[in-house]
Amino acid sequence: MAIIYGYNCDMKVSVADAKNQLPKLIRAAEQGQRVTICRHGKPVVDLIRSVAGKRKKPRLGTLRGRVIVHDPDWWKPMAHEEVDEMFGTGK
């Protein structure tokens, strides 16, 4: 059985009622109402609205000046002679 004391006051709910009315209790918590779930008349858990964490904006350019490109043509395919020279395979 849910016990509501009034506007902006705590709502106390038994575990059995909380199982049956969870979406309703979540909506109440989202609206700023504190919901206390009790077991055998003793408070066990409080449902309160959570605050979303702030997302940090990505910082672009943090690796500028730290990346060294030794060969600007690294992406071009190698000639057969260069592959043979690198791996020491001879014909």
Describe the secondary-structure layout.
Elements: E1 3-4, E2 11-14, H1 15-20, H2 22-30, E3 35-39, E4 42-47, H3 80-87
Parallel strand pairs: 2-3
Antiparallel strand pairs: 1-2, 3-4
Describe the structure.
The chain is of the alpha+beta class and 91 residues long. It has a domain at 3-47: YefM-like domain (YefM-like fold), CATH 3.40.1620. It is built from three helices and four strands, in the order ββααββα. The protein has helices spanning 15-20, 22-30, 80-87; strands at residues 3-4, 11-14, 35-39, 42-47. The chain has a four-stranded mixed β-sheet with strand order 1-2-3-4. A hairpin with a 6-residue loop joins β1 and β2 (11-14). The N and C termini lie far apart (88 Å).
Number of β-strand runs: 4
Mean pLDDT: 83
| CATH topology category name of the domain at 3-47 | YefM-like fold
Q: Rg, please?
A: 32 Å
**C-alpha geometry:** rod-shaped
The CATH architecture of the domain at 3-47 can be named as: 3-Layer(aba) Sandwich
What are the secondary-structure elements, in order, as H or E? Answer: EEHHEEH
Total helices: the number is: 3
Q: What would you call the structural class?
A: alpha+beta
Content of β-strand: 15-25%
Strand order of the largest sheet: 1-2-3-4
Query: CATH H level of the domain at 3-47: which superfamily?
Result: YefM-like domain
Q: Which range best describes the helical content: under 10%, 10-25%, 25-40%, 40-55%, 55-70% or over 70%? A: 25-40%
End-to-end span in angstroms? 88 Å
- Low-confidence stretches at least 5 residues in length (pLDDT < 50)? 1-7
Please give the CATH class of the domain at 3-47: Alpha Beta
The main sheet comes to: 4 strands, mixed
